[in-house]
Structures are given as C-alpha cells and as structure tokens.
Amino acid sequence: MRSDRLDFLRHDEDRLAHALPDWLSESERNAVLADWSLWARASQLPPPGDWRVWLIMAGRGFGKTRAGAEWVRMVAEGDHSARIALVASSLHEARSVMVEGESGLMAVSPPHLRPRYEPSLRRIVWPGGAQALLYSAAEAEALRGPQHSHAWCDEIAKWDDNQGQARRCWDNLMLGLRLGSAPQIVATTTPRAVPLVRRLVAQVGMDDDVVLTRGSTLENEANLPGRFIADVTREFGGTLLGRQELDGELIDDLPGALWTRGLIETCRDTGAVPAMTRVIVGVDPPASAEGDACGIVVCGLGDDGVARVLADASVEKASPERWARAVAETARAWSADRVVAEANQGGAMVGAVLRAANAMLPLRLVHATRGKTARAEPVAALYEAGRVRHAGFFARLEDELCGLLPGGTYQGPGRSPDRADACVWALTELMLGRAGEPRIWID
C-alpha cells in the first residue's frame, strides 16, 4: 500500500531524497527510493486477480514503459527462477527502450540489484538468477521453441503485421508461456486499431485472463515538461489522432475506408528522411473565407523513389490574400518545384490570387472532373503498395484521409476533406502524373 505521508512527494524524487534521511536509516532510505509502489499511480501497478495478460493501452507519456519495466523488475527480484521474454517491434527498440531507455530496466533498478546486460547473447541476468531474453516481433519463429514464465511486450500496435506476422509472434509467445505456476504477460501500447490489439480488447470482460488498463497523457502531467503538454495539446487537441495518441482511445476505422489508421502507421517514417528530388505543394482553395480550410500540403519524391508527405501548412477561415500568401510562403520554404491548385472554385480567380501573392510561383491549375474520393482511390493504392510514407504525424490530415470512403462518400471531421484533397493533388502530380486526373490545364 502506498503511504499517504509520501503522496505529496510522489512526483518529486529530489524532494523525497532530501526528506527521507531525517526519517530513515541509509538502508531504509535506499529501500524506499527503490519501492515503485510509493511512486506509481494506481494505474501503473499490477491489477488484482489471477490474470494472464495485463494490457496497458494509454496515451503517449502516460508512463507505460516505466510500468512495464517495474513489473519485470518485480518479477525478477521476487522469482529467481523467472525466465522473461522482452519483445519489441525490433531488437533495436527492445534494447534502446526496454533495456537501456530512460524508463528501461537498467534505469529503474537500484545499483545493488541492477542486472547484467549481455548484448551479444540478447540476455539480461539479475543477481538472484532470473533471466530475460530479447526478441524482435519481426522474427516470429524465434519464439516458437523457447519457454518462458513471464513476458513484457512493448508497443504491440507497432509490430509489423504483414501477413499476420504480429499475431503469429504473439501466438508463439503464448504457446511457450508454460514455465512456473502462473505465467503472465504485460503488453504496453499506444492504442491503434490493428488486428492484435483488437483481438486482445475483445477478450476483456469475457473472463479474467485479459485485464485492460486505460490512461491518458495528462495523467502523468506532473512528470512531463509543460512545453510538451502545450505543444501536443495545440497540435492534436480535438482531433481523432489526439484522442488516440493522447487520450488513449481505440479509434475504430470506418468500414471500407480508403485509409485506415493501421495503414497510415505502417507508412510512417520516424527516422531520417532521404533527400527529395522533387517537391510539390498541393492546394485545395476554400469556397469562402468563412467556409472550410484552405488545404496546403507539401509532398516530395525521395531519391529512393518513395513519395513522402512532408508538411501540412493548411490555414482555416482565411481571406484569399491570407491563404494565397500562406501557399507562396510554403512553396518558398520548401523550395517547391510546383504548386498544384484545384481551380473548380473560382477558376481563373484562384490563379490570379496566387500570382498576386507571388508572380513567379510555379503554378499548375487543375480542374477536377471526379469527386474527391474518386480521385483519392489511386493514391490510396500507392499507400497500400508502400510507395507513400508520412514523415511525421499530421493529425488533422490523417483524420480526413481516414474519413474518405469509396463511392464519393466522406464521413470524416468537418464538411469537406480539404487537407486530404490537397494531399491527393500533390501525390497525384508526383506519382501518377496526368493519368491521375484526365482534365488538367496550365495557367
């Protein structure tokens, strides 16, 4: 049980460290500093009951990694015969996050109980004899033979599920979880509507085997930089992606949608972006200043032959002068080779407004003969083929993409998918050329 006397210090290790010497001996002080139950929120502690899987599905910054690492530490220190599997989307992430990360196993262990990490063997050994082995979810067959008593699976929604790979990895792990008297798995993840996560969530409440803990980013606000909270709230607040990434909600995909959350996640770059050989700014002008947003999306073709969504510079409720200036500034900032703008609303006026903002703007005006979703279908196919990636997170754009349905229907946020349409224009120009839109004229 957490002591009420220490609640006011729970989020401030320095204050606790300075306060404790007056109360306790040095050995008692070290024991208190290493006692996770004094620090953790209730949602970060193992739930009661005879569960087999504890699924922690929460927003970014909630403290999922710390909860997983502390649970593994508790198991290893309490059961010297424990054999623990540590599974991440890759061996690199298993090592950099689960073992060596700021909230990983090495960081949370007190010096006298810190395990020995043997990178060449992918193994961690605790002083008492418990062991953990590192696995990559991309190598499902590696889990076919080994036996374990416990497992910690991190960010299971990120595991590559091409041809059911993630689910095979999970199944192989479960089949090998046959050591000890009460095998258990902790799975920590940001929610995404991928098959493995859906399967586990569906099992919650059916029996006591799967227990679910939900949580939001703001629950851990005391331990997060104020600037981070302000930035993510401004960028993602009020979006479906924000509800997923911050609030920890599992957002269901629309049946038959051209884009799904899972598809976009498989197409997301988190590392360095290659050099661009061509950059296009797609523009979907608003019908009026009081109406929808002016979609302004930057896409580039990498020297690896893959297109990337680079930026969403869209502006809302802007006058023609303001959105035209935003287009010109975006084109200049990204050294765009061309600006592609839809001319259905206003025709030549669109070109005149854009050229007034910058007479030298490399502009192509396009006239749409098909609906937004019809134009989007060949672009969605590029995502399916792995020919388009997102260089970062674009919450409002991605919400709109996931609202596009075949047959001309849009069920996403807002009245119109302006950002999505701008993105489609840019990617069509980059990857499909004139074949993507039959009636194109140049101003």
Structure description:
This protein is an alpha/beta fold and 443 residues long. The chain is 34% helix and 18% strand. It has helices at 13-19, 26-33, 36-39, 64-78, 91-99, 105-108, 165-175, 195-203, 226-236, 240-245, 261-266, 320-333, 348-357, 372-384, 395-401, 418-432; strands at residues 53-58, 83-88, 116-118, 123-125, 131-136, 150-154, 184-189, 210-215, 276-284, 295-302, 307-312, 338-342, 363-366, 388-390, 404-405, 409-410. The strands form three sheets. Strands 3-4-5-2-6-7-1-8 form an eight-stranded mixed sheet, sandwiched between helices. The chain has a six-stranded mixed sheet with strand order 13-12-9-10-11-14. Strands 15-16 form a two-stranded antiparallel ribbon. Helix 12 (320-333) crosses helix 13 (348-357), helix 14 crosses helix 16 (418-432) and helix 15 (395-401) packs across helix 16. It is elongated.
